[in-house]
Amino acid sequence: MEWVYTFAWLIPVLPLAAATLVGLGFISVPEWTKRQRLPVAALSIGTLAVTFVHSLLILSQAVGGHEAYTWQFEWAAMGGIVVPMGFTVDNLGAAMLTVVTGVALLVMIYSHGYMEHDPGYVRFFCYLSLFSCSMLGLVVSPNLIQIYVFWELVGMCSYLLVGFWFYKKAAADAAQKAFIVNRVGDFGLLLGILGVYSITRTFDFPGLAPAIQTAIESGAVPLALVVVYCLLVFMGPMAKSAQVPLHVWLPDAMEGPTPISALIHAATMVAAGVFLVARVFPVFSEVPGVLEVIAWTGAVTAFVGATIAITQNDIKKGLAYSTISQLGYMMMAMGVGAYGAGLFHLVTHACFKAMLFLGSGSVIHGVHDNQDMRLMGGLRKYMPITSATFLIGVLAISGIPPFSGFWSKDEILSAAFDHSLVLWGIGAFTAAITAFYMARMYLMTFEGAYRGENAAALTAVRAWRQNVDREGVVRGFASLPSFGPGAMHTDELAAHGHGEDHDHGEEHGHGGAPHESPWSMTLPLVVLAVPSILIGFVGLPWDNAFGHFLEEGSGYHGAEHAFELGHFLLIAGSSTLLSVGGIALAYYLYILRPELPGQIARRFEPVYLFFINKWNFDWLYEQAFVKTSRLLARGTLQVDQKGVDGVVNFSGLTTLLAGEGLKYFESGRAQFYVLIIFGSLLGLVALLGLL
Amino acid sequence: MFPWLTVIILLPLVAALAVPLIPEKQVKWYSFAVCLVDFVLMVAAFFTSYDLSNPNIQLSERYRWMPQIGLEWSVGADGLSMPLILLTGFITALATLAAWPVTLRPRMFHFLMLAMLAGMVGVFAVQDMVLFFLFFELELVPVYLMLAIWGGKNRLYAATKFILYTAIGSLFILVVGLAMYFYGDLRTFNMVELAAKNYDPTFQNLCFLGLLIAYAVKLPIFPLHTWLPDAHGEATAPVHMLLAGILLKMGGYALIRMNVGFFPEATQVFAPLLIVLGIVNIIYAALTSFGQRNLKRKIAYSSISHMGFVLIGVGSLSEIGMGGAMLQMISHGLIGASLFFLVGATYDRTHTLLLSEMGGIAPKMPKIFAMFTACSMASLALPGMSGFVAELMVFVGMATTDAYSFQFKALVVLFAAFGVILTPIYLLSMLREIFYGTLNHSVVHEEDLVDAEPREVFIIASLLVPIFGIGLYPKLTTDLYAPTTDQLTRVTRERIARAAPPPALLSGIYSVEMTDKHRVSQR
User: In chain A, N or C: fewer CB atoms in 10 Å?
Assistant: First the structure.
């Protein structure tokens, strides 16, 4: 079975071939290509299915103990500096390949149903194939330059897909924001790569750590410099994995179609940051301080994301902040040295978060393109499959045993506990918040009564929207119904629900009762539910098959923890308790006493506004960066036009005026000319004499 | 041996003389055919008679022209000229294709295009200082006329500014050429022989500065760049393509061949200045481009910004940096031409260049949208396309060069990397304002918004093929010139190593090796 490794380059190339084929069709016969819906879908899904099978074969070989395989060629070379390209498949890569191809395959099948009525169906599949190629290329990258190449390419695919509905202003803005915020991260990554290269003189992953170690030990390079380089490299993962303070693009990216949110902005691309940290983990663990920064960044991100998620009413935005929070957990795991735990959470999260997002898409599809949870409710009756799988996802992400999220989150918390009590505290508290907001999301969407047809609810939501200013900042809600926090007390609705125009067109594309989605959308949900429940068992604390598998191939061996039952029960017990508490609280607040959330939010209005305004990050960036850069650009333009070009035009004007003035001396009188010549000569002689 | 280069230069000139005999309807076919034949000749010449591993001048021809003053018709090509000659043939052929919609005096327009082709190839191919000056001037005339006759509202201002600016700049070439002619015992205008002379440091510095002014206008370098936005603001699509695609590269080409090639010791002194100017170009022009509301001017500033990388690459004094500078010129030739062509195509439909008046034209023109996006991505150095490789090589060259101190290198790389953030800001904002959102019905008429015709798709596709080709496998192109740029850098470095030290004022900029050399030479 050696060929599965030697032909691993086919994994990114096959989707690329599909995308190229469709792209060529678009260039040459666009109208015809647009009609080839089924063939294009079949081609995209087919190629990805092949790569999925291929990845599974590689994974099975890797589990069987096959060694890592690397092949490189000279891509660019000049003056003794060689930039190689190629592919490498080790155990980490094999696991990632399986996750990426698996999720991408399911998302593609799902998209067939979700995008059915969209005129851009074929283009969508073309982009999806392109993205799969970029992401898979990133996974098999054997060196820093190649990972940077594909890093940027997945960013471009994200740009194209977020802006897929380009006629929507919000989508256009979000696409641009996503690209530019990621470029800020790439700026650091590029500088970091150059810095690391200037020390190691190699781009290859295996060669980095030893070279850095030698450089530090010999004192050839100051330690502070290495730390700076490593942190610059970390800027890339910070942007891509939406870590505070570069997380602002991810919630906005939800303007893209929901399958994209599931695939790119939850399961795969955003995990690329964690993946890169894993790839350069041997380097980071060589340099003191770097891991500490990563751990704290992750912890802060986890907490910030979770607190914002509580206040979200848009189902996709809520999931987006939850993704940010979970990515924070992964980073924290990396930072505390629990390399395997972070990746384990990456895998479990990919399964259940993809399922949750696809579930939210199914909900949005079912209630006719409404994303506002305040106008949902009671959907369990209409969409049994969606609600069941969503519930599984909620339990998994909340860390309820024995669902997958429990095992991975527990491993992270346990590692954090060993590292620092404060980090563990943040992680455990965030776990409780997570359980709360996920349960809130489930309850608001699927339990209670359906509110999408409720005129009072519609009015209240519309009134609430008035409260949000043009920059998206919520200005307080003293005189408004407490619809912000998502309280669903019917008395409140009655008090505000009279005498307004019923603009159903805004919330409802077609109207009508909610319905369950077609099989192509529910099938992926059901398939993803299986690993969401079961995959945790590959990483049991007392028999961590996944951790061993990763460590075998990576050359990095973390500290072996002997399994202690008491320790496990303490950590797992406390986190389970917190999660159950969170869920219970959500049940109490949103089902038993639905008037309470509004009152609480009113009571603690500043806190509530702080959270719902996303800790004011967007506002701050708007003031500090967007407006400043516009001002700077306008200023530069003024300098260019008035200053630099002004000098040019002024010199032109001077010659013109001088000529105009001098022409009057041309009078035709010879004596005058002689006088001028004589005077000039005299002046010249005098000047020379003085010198 | 067959006089390849002479034929390639003279063919369009001779063919241009026959243009008045061609019927007005057919002249576009005629000039396209001539350009195509010329391009095929170039490919044939380099395919049959050019040895890629040889770094020196090849295909060289020398005929005595005016022996009294040592003037010769002397042409040849090495790794510096060869890719640029090919680029010229390629872009000009596509530009004649882009000139098909020209209805005002098409014969004259195509006559000028053909004259242009001869002039531009001449600039890259000649190996004689006076000839170089002549061709450098000759190619100004067609551009002037094309601007002045077929330009926009402000065309006379722009054309006059263009010709005055460049003509004053090129005076310095003549002065420096004459100074070098009279230096030492050997009276010669031949470039190879001029490069072999040993000039004293002050003379080198003066000449370097003179040539730098001439080429700073052409490249352009801040603060001598203001003719470019004006010229671009008024030009038509084919002129854009030639201006951005080829004319700017003459500045970079001459900077490498003459400033670096003739005056290595002065290069040591001026290289930090080049690098600083490169950074200014990158950041200043990117900011200006972001502030600019006129589409053509926006792209013009983006050209200036991209040329900053050429300066940094040259100034890095490393093989890979120099290679990156060269690749950036080729890459920008392709990308700049494609972007400007698309700008022209968009303007033909929207009849406005103001971004604030555009918006939402994507659904009507999906092909233009797709091509514009692809070319913008190429321009913002997306991996997989040529711009990325070029910028990466410049970055690696600057980061690893041993000519400068760590602090200087770190600062340069840091500031240059700001371009990585700024470029997408203005390019993506531009895309958003043109294509995304809703249509502005008050200015743009929906019936005018017809999607790209096959001719336009063909032009962009032709440009995208090499853009992707270089991006996917850069050795395809770098191998064309690497021997020459490597040798040039090596020789320069050797001469610098033996030369007098750099001014003490600048000692903090250079590396310890350079300052050590300083002490050694004093002892």
Answer: C
For A608-637, the pLDDT digits (tens) are 888 888 888 888 888 888 888 889 988 988
User: Among residues B372, B382, B383, which one has the least CA distance to residue B463?
Assistant: B372
ipTM of this predicted complex?
Answer: 0.91
Range of the domain at A167: 1-218+251-279
Query: If residue A656 lies in a helix (H) or strand (E), which one and from where to where?
Result: helix A645-662
List chain B residues with CB under 8 Å of A183: 420-421, 424
Q: Report yes or no on A581 lying in a domain.
A: no
Find the helix or strand (DSSP H, E) in which A535 lies. Answer: none
Please give the tally of structural domains in chain A.
2
On the question of pLDDT at A490 being above 60, the answer is no
pLDDT exceeds cutoff 50 at B87: yes
Domain boundary among A279, A296, A324: A279
pLDDT level of residue A220 (50, 70, 90 thresholds): confident
Which residues form the domain of B473?
4-522
Quick count: other Cβ atoms within 10 Å of Cβ A530?
12
Residue A72 backbone phi and psi in degrees, to 5: -135, 155
What share of residues in chain A are helix, strand, coil (percent, to 5)? 75, 5, 20
Give which of A390, A167, A178, A157 is closest to A260, Cα–Cα.
A157
Residues of A in contact with B370 (CB under 8 A): 26
B170-186: b (≥16 Cβ within 10 Å) or e: bebbbbbbeebbebeee
Per-residue pLDDT at B354 exceeds 90:
no
* A309 belongs to a structural domain: no
**DSSP at B354:** B
A554 pLDDT band, cuts 50/70/90, is low
Q: Which two tokens stand for residue A493?
A: 């609705």
> Would you say residue A90 has pLDDT above 70?
yes
Single-letter code of the amino acid located at A408: S
CA–CA distance, A317 with A321 (Å, rounded to integer): 6
Q: Mutate one of B436, B460, B464, B470 to test the A interface: name it (highest A CB count within 10 A).
A: B436
How far apart, in Å, are the Cα atoms of B88 and each of A15, B73, B84, B252, B392?
36, 21, 6, 14, 24
Q: Which of A304, A293, A193 is nearest to A242 (CA)?
A: A304
> What total number of domains does chain B contain?
1
Structural domain contains residue A648: yes
Nearest Cα to A277, choosing from A395, A147, A149? A147
Is residue A23, in this structure, part of any structural domain at all?
A: yes
Answer yes or no: are the C-beta atoms of A336 and A415 closer than 8 Å: yes
> Which among B287, B395, B424 has the least Cβ separation from residue A194?
B395
Give the residue from B402, B365, B418 showing the smallest Cα distance to B489.
Answer: B402
CB neighbours of B487 closer than 8 A, spacing ≥ 6? B55, B56
Q: How far apart are the CA of B293 and the nearest CA of chain A, in angstroms?
A: 10
E strand residue ranges, A563-609: none
What confidence category does residue B253 fall into, taking pLDDT thresholds of 50, 70 and 90?
Answer: very high
- Can you tell me the distance from the alpha carbon of B394 to that of B247, in angstroms, rounded to the nearest whole number? 22
Lowest mean pLDDT among A190-204, A230-244, A441-455, B459-473: A441-455
Q: Tens digit of pLDDT for each residue in B40-51?
A: 999 999 999 888
Residue of A nearest to B482 (CA): A78
Question: CB–CB of B486 and A173 under 8 A?
Answer: no
Q: Are B288 and A637 in contact (CB under 8 A)?
A: yes
Q: How far apart are CA A413 and CA A420, in angstroms?
A: 10
- Considering chain B, what is the average pLDDT of its residues? 89
- Of A279, A295, A319, the residue at which a domain comes to its end is A279
**Beta strands A543-544; A539-540: pairing state:** antiparallel
What tokens appear for A174 in the block?
């979000």
pTM to 2 decimals?
A: 0.90
Predicted confidence at residue B520, as pLDDT, reads 52
Q: Are B266 and B204 in contact (CB under 8 A)?
A: yes
